[in-house]
Hints:
The structure holds 2 protein chains of 2 kinds.
Chain A: H1 3-12, H2 20-28, H3 45-49, E1 68-69, E2 82-89, E3 95-96, E4 101-103, E5 106-111, E6 115-120, E7 126-131, E8 144-145, E9 149-151, E10 154-158, E11 163-168, E12 174-179, E13 194-196, E14 199-203, E15 214-219, E16 225-230, E17 260-262, E18 267-271, E19 292-296, E20 303-308, E21 324-330, E22 333-341, E23 346-352, E24 357-364, E25 371-374, E26 381-383, E27 394-397, E28 411-412, E29 419-424, E30 427-432, E31 453-456, E32 464-470, E33 475-482, E34 491-494, E35 498-501, E36 508-513, E37 519-524, E38 534-538, E39 541-548, H4 552-563, E40 577-583
Chain B: H1 5-16, E1 42-45, E2 67-73, E3 78-79, E4 88-92, E5 110-114, E6 126-129, E7 136-139, E8 146-148, E9 154-157, E10 169-172, E11 175-178
Antiparallel strand pairs in B: 1-2, 2-3, 2-4, 4-5, 6-7, 7-8, 8-9, 10-11
Amino acid sequence: MTITSTAVKTCAVKKWLLSSTVAFTCLTAPAAVAGPIENYSPVTPARLENPEPGNWMLYRRTYDGQGYSPLNQINTTNVKNMVPAWTFATGVIEGHEAPPLVNNGVMFITTPMGQVIALNAKTGDQYWRYKRELPEDLFQLHPTNRGVGLWQDKLYLATTDDHLVALDAKTGKVLWDKKVQDYKKGQYLTLMPLIVDGKVMVGGSGGEFGVRGYVVAYDAEDGKELWRTFTIPGEGEPGHDTWSGDDWKSGGGSAWMTGTYDKDTKTVYWGVGNAAPWPGGMHPGDNLYTSSVIALDPATGKIKTHFQYHQNDSWDWDEVDAPMLVDLQRDGRSFKSLIHPGRDAIFWVLERTPERINYVNGWNFVHTDVWKGIEPETGRPIVDPEHKPTLGKRVDFCPSLWGGKDWPSAAYSQNTRFVYVPANENFCGGFTGEKVPLVPGQLWLGTKPEDIGLTVRPGADHFGELQAWDPATGKKVWAHNFPKSQLFGSVTATAGDLVLVGGTNDRMLRAFHAKTGELLWEQKTNSGIMGMPVAYEVDGTQYIAVQSGWGVDAQRIQDALAKGNIGLEDNVPQGGVVWVFAVKK
Amino acid sequence: MHDHPTRRSVVFGTLAACASVASAAADDDDPRKEKRPQKGDLLVFSEGEREGQTITPNDLKIGEPPIHAWPKDAANAIVRDGSRLNEVLVIRLDPRELDEDTLPRAADGIVAYSAICSHAGCPVTAWIKATEGNDDVFKCMCHNSEYDPRRGAQVVFGPAPRRLAALPLVIRDGALVIAAPFIGKVGGQQG
């Protein structure tokens, strides 16, 4: 038994109690040191398909992407007594966007710059740390990482220098390292890999550099590439005729978030980014499969079907956050849905079948001046050309290019059957489209980067808005407004009827009543929170964990707001810390 | 505001800033192309119609945006474009505005700095009015860091942890010549 394990045992024999007595006991136990993890629980296909309530082993805990924990020991009654149990400084700056993953008492953290840290989920003691040595000439537009994939006794890290690295979960040692694409051409990876049936799937970032997006699968054992599916159809493939000329070769459609998975139909649903460059006039056509969800066969990579949220994107509204899989009751019938509160400001409710994705309903969940409506039969939004960016003309639109909801995930509660959306209201933006040549590895936005604006609607009384929606009826149940901050963090729901979210510039983590929206608890942390809170359990005690570490787009929005001199906080400190909370007894 | 000619030229400069410059005398994997700027190197345009041509003091005017450049080993006709870390911003400023650290590195008000942001390693592409103050400054559009070239390219806004590396210059026989290697670290932070 390692010294670390001994330390754990010393604390464990005491009745769990967050008091000075227990703190003293832990401090006088042998100091924890790095070491291999003993008795690690292999992450089997069965465990991923039906994870134990106390574990969080996938990006949104379950393959359906609901971001819901069945734990209820911490609930609306006792959350007011929730206090920090332990913290851990990562020593890294920039955006900490990964969920703390937990597998039977072992926590895995990833940080910007490609670090993975294995911790004892009960004590916060470190087992090991992996540090990616990044190339000195790498530049990172999005210096972040959203988590490691877990499979058997291995971990899989996707890196910003565009490699996929397999690690030994017990030691952090590198098992294999595969180059996915070329970082010098603007290709990079920030997502948590999705692993299904021994296939490690990742999707590439880099749409802003004019790459052609893709999803690729590797053999979990040896890293052999099994298939690669481009998100923009090539010549002779269905959908290719939605592009003009050679635009498809540099058309964007990056796939930089983790997909969701329907284990019954063996279908992966993957969100696809916007077309490149931004002004639609530079890529005429509908531009499949940009700003879409594609349904993939994980065995072959074949695209089974798709649904395009909006056509000929011109607003930088990529739709990479994969849809949630929810069984819905609506209009007297039950159906299997896909739910996606879009960056395009439309709350999408779709029906998934093995053969098709059907439009069911859609409505604006924040103010937008872009859409005149949605065609009821097809689900195709009707665009107002006055608010569609084009070449040679300044065009303004609402919401801003960060959309009604960016990549931070919404959550679905199986208790309340509501969807909780980290929305942003009252933001608009605009730019002038310019025809510019593509230089591989250089930003290719089709506008001046310095002219990309974030503006505020006249009379705006808030920006961030945590919303609760009933997806069956399309009615907003409640909302909590943030008058002085955007909301840029993923949401988690629990069976304790809690909705947990950070995302604000005041560095808070908050817990809301899932049914009423009442603010029940909040805690100021070291930095702003962008990643998602998780719930887990060790030795009969439930914990809430989250990484606090501001950066990337939350920081960009903050800079824009501060520059606009509208009285918002302009100094959100950086630096990552893992926070773990429990209820004081 | 949106048609400001200086800003427009900056954008075009951005997109072409790292375009590869052909060198007749060296093949692509010649290690000298990756070597950092050396004392005695010249500077050549890295973009535009004059790509590859030597930059002279007359090419730089006070009030104009920076020129993007590669160092060139003139003796061996090798343009050091093998690493993006060699990209340089060259600009002429009023010598009276330069601080005591910057003035000795300048050649008749012309100063040069690494074009690589010290934050996340993005290219520094814009020359625009500072977020705080009235002067134009270098700006990295990735994460909004700003640098003042009059004061050794120190950080005046944004998350960058340190100034841009400086490249001392002299004018010799009418040519702009690198007087010493980079002062300071080139590239973004890694952790």
